[in-house]
Amino acid sequence: MNQDKWSNQNNLSQTRRALISVSDKSGIVELAQELERLGWEIVSTGGTARTLAGAGVTVTEASEVTGFPEILGGRVKTLHPKIHGGLLARLDLAEHRQQLAKQGISPIRLLVVNLYPFAQTISRPGVELAEAVENIDIGGPAMIRAAAKNFAHVAVVVNPARYGQVIAELSEKGAISEEMRFRLAAEAFTHTAHYDALIAGYLSARPESGAELFPQQLSLPLQKIQELRYGENPQQQAAFYALGWKSQGLAAARQLQGKELSFNNLNDLQAAWELLREFDEPTAVAVKHTNPCGVASDKTIEKAYQRAHDADPVSIFGGIVALNRPVSAAVATEMSKIFLEVVAAPAFDPEAREIFSRKKEIRLLEMAPAGPDEDREPELKKVSGGLLLQTVDREPVELSSARVVTERAPTGEEWRDLAFAQKVVKHVKSNAIVIAKGGCTLGVGAGQMNRVGAARIALEQAGEEAAGAVLGSDAFFPFPDTVEVAAEAGVTALVQPGGSQKDKASIEACNRHGLAMVFTGRRYFKH
To answer: DSSP class of residue 58?
Structure first.
């Protein structure tokens, strides 16, 4: 990019022709008026041309340039050599200049295009495939790509936020710099790539597409929601992107008060909300560093929150709390007694909002219901040079098919607590152990390098309350040591996947201590 072809003194290169064709018309009249003031000829199409003409801007219809009318209901209007020749000509090549002159083609030095509103169309509930297809732009992407390829001679603008910068350069320098044209070209190719990814994602998600779960090529349409203050640590930069064309999940949540959400807030919120989705009954989840530190279900959300708080009143401080029922004034009053980073719920009662308004540092998040396509979104993990993808584990946690492997079977109350413990342990970093009783966690051992170490942490946290409680494990016991420490603490029933070569030793240890144990055959590793 050492020599700027824009300033080539050939007569053709001095042509000041701009082609404008936009779906998003914000700021377009002001841009065109400034271009006209600076002596530019403006070519336009359809609705854009009518908008500009209505504002008093002198406009040449594209059909006058091509000598060919718009046809097929507007499907074909700019797919013509006199348009694409004007965009793709290299003005530094004598051969190209001669061909333009011979064919009567004027160079187009500025292209302002944004595309049919495909994303907005498919976001509407009940939109039909035929309507979606009609909002797939063809001529727009073709022109954008042509102009972006030829950035040495053409400036392409797809983002209305750039209009002011373009006019500033034209007013101050009489031309758009090569550096600016290069940045605009990169932005243009990103724009068309995102557009195509949206179309591919929408069509592939339809059952008639027969798309593979993990296709050979994958394009993910990501749209930035906001830049974050920093990442996991202040020395890291971060941003939050929405995946797909529908606003759903955490990306659709509405913040009601508090400062901007951080990278860690969002990460913890995701962990809390995913765990909360396991429960239908009133449930409160407290999360710290993506691991639950207190989870409780009860008849009312007030009781559920209080029990979740009391399960670990130390760790909940500065944590994230998520509820699956609206936040009442009573819950808000209790929450206001401690420092919480975020409270997330489907709704907040007006009285609760008033109480929280006195604690402005608490971020309140109104969560949206699960979207229809949310479960089809893959889980992504970044690795060096690539991504790991997997399906989301949405299989309900239930023990109806669990196998009792000990002499004693669990009591009815133990069965309920075993199911509760498994719902929680599914969302705890491996190696994971959860101690629970009465629909409430008593101790959580997370992310340990050996299972008995996780058990010891969870049992120490549960303390004397472990007597009569149950133990849930995310994976099998490689040795009977976990059973031994559980029995010593007073645990009465255990649930695990089974499948270890030493299952028999663990079963014998349970029988020796009079414990009940069930095998589920389902592992819940979380890394």
So the answer is: -
